[in-house]
UniProtKB/TrEMBL annotation:
GO terms for cellular component: mitochondrial inner membrane. Signal peptide: none annotated. The keyword Magnesium applies. It comes from Arnoglossus tenuis (dwarf lefteye flounder). This is Cytochrome c oxidase subunit 2.
Length: 230
């Protein structure tokens, strides 16, 4: 999760988020170089003592400031298109989970299990235990096995919502009457936090997303217990 005074993005917990971080650094370095060059040119022009007023045009400069921006755009566009295809690709998922957005909570259905379904409400501040995070904890966590391709089906029952987990590089719109899908792989065990990222009404900021990535043995035990409770 994010922490106070954080300057960068959250640490990556999935291969997709690692690629997004690399692209962010790549684009940021290009922006830094361009900004430095433009600042240098401005300073050089302002501080120059001599000006040749007879120069009306320069074919060489015209070529340079046409070709260089084209090269820069290609350097940004190619990895960007690659990332877009990676984000849309779903490769042989080993588990499918459906997230259904409501005002203002989430319902999760494990489509590979008959009786595994539950609602996830935000924990009130008075119910938090030491170490839990205000506005981010839910009474039921979405539990998935680590290092396993997971497919998420996302939709909504009433209004627009968005299912987002920054550490996994996932953000999917939840639209009533439509199923959107995405996929992710949690590279390590842990607890990852997100929130609804579409303004959905008065309690929009009170429907958190909590995903717990565990070992396969722990997930099998948890799923068995949850199925019995349902």
């Amino acid at each position: 999760m994010a922490h106070p005074s954080q300057l960068g993005l959250q640490d990556a917990a999935s291969p997709l988020m690692e690629e997004l971080l690399h692209f962010h650094d790549h684009a940021l370095m290009i922006v830094l170089l361009i900004s430095t060059m433009v600042l240098y040119i401005i300073i050089a022009m302002v501080t120059a003592k001599f000006t040749d007023k007879l120069i009306l045009d320069s074919q060489e400069i015209e070529v340079i400031w046409t070709v260089l921006p084209a090269i820069v755009l290609i350097m940004i566009a190619m990895p960007s298109l690659r990332l877009l295809y990676m984000m849309d690709e779903v490769n042989v998922p080993q588990m499918t989970v459906k997230a259904l957005g409501h005002q203002w909570y989430w319902t999760y259905e494990y489509t590979d299990y008959e009786d595994l379904e539950f609602d996830a409400y935000m924990l009130a501040t008075s119910d938090l235990t030491p170490g839990q995070f205000r506005l981010l904890e839910a009474d039921h966590r979405l539990v998935v096995p680590a290092i396993t391709p997971i497919r998420m089906l996302v939709t909504a029952e009433d209004v627009l919502h968005a299912w987002a987990l920054p550490a996994l590089g996932v953000k999917v719109d939840a639209i009533p009457g439509r199923l959107n899908q995405t996929a992710f792989i949690a590279e390590r065990p842990g607890v990852f936090y997100g929130q609804c990222s579409e303004i959905c009404g008065a309690n929009h900021s009170f429907m958190p997303i909590v995903l717990e990535s565990t070992s396969l043995d722990h997930f099998v035990h948890w799923s068995a217990v949850m199925s019995e409770d349902n």
